[in-house]
């Protein structure tokens, strides 16, 4: 479902007339990172989880590759969310300077950076110094975080904390600005275009707040777990349900984003309905001709 849902979002965003819009470009990059999570982590975990295997069945290289690509996609996802928040911040708070700061060339460079930085950070997965482990409770391969606390802190300090600080600050400013404009409308002190401002940006704000909130709800517990693995003695064992639930809760975010797109984006929802209506009509005609 993660693969099919995000692939559908990628295709739909690319077919929209807003494809030249910067927001659509960032959203497509976000959908690509979610698709990558499904392709590199959850897909490889289906067979081990179904058979309750105590060993990784695909070999050491595939364990390292799955861990590396999955962690790259996860880091790229949160960096992309930070880029989206910055783009929305400038668009809403500094609209007159938007085209000065957000150029096509800068946006493409930022997207390339959102992938290249995680690749550089997580390339250590292939080194013997870091290594990878197969968790028999979650059926996933990951970097050996418990024995490398410094590496875990580095990832959190370079990717997670700066991105989340940026997201919280920008969206706090956006929500605050929207609240001020709403109060101006109610007190009839707003300029003529204020109501249009609120209507245009309300759904966009809800969309990006939901995406950001669900991402942190999914990934923050797992990040804390990874940090605790390095801080606590190696003899300490977390409950099996914690080892299983938190990684898969993080993975589920890649599917939740699909629903967020559908709920808060009428154009996407409209195109999805057309696809399903066409499929239903095709099946009806097919069965009638049998």
TrEMBL record:
One of its GO terms (cellular component) is plasma membrane. SUPFAM superfamilies: Family A G protein-coupled receptor-like. Residues 5-261 form the G-protein coupled receptors family 1 profile domain. Gene3D superfamilies: Rhodopsin 7-helix transmembrane proteins. CDD domains: 7tm_classA_rhodopsin-like. The keyword rRNA processing does not apply. The chain crosses the membrane at residues 65-86, 107-129, 149-174, 204-225, 245-264. It holds the Pfam family 7tm_1. It is found in: Cell membrane. Residues 1-18 form the signal peptide. Its main location: membrane. InterPro entries: GPCR_Rhodpsn, GPCR_Rhodpsn_7TM, TAAR. One of its GO terms (molecular function) is G protein-coupled receptor activity. Keywords: Cell membrane, G-protein coupled receptor, Membrane, Receptor, Signal, Transducer, Transmembrane, Transmembrane helix. It is a multi-pass membrane protein. The keyword Signal applies. Belongs to the G-protein coupled receptor 1 family. This is Trace amine-associated receptor 4.
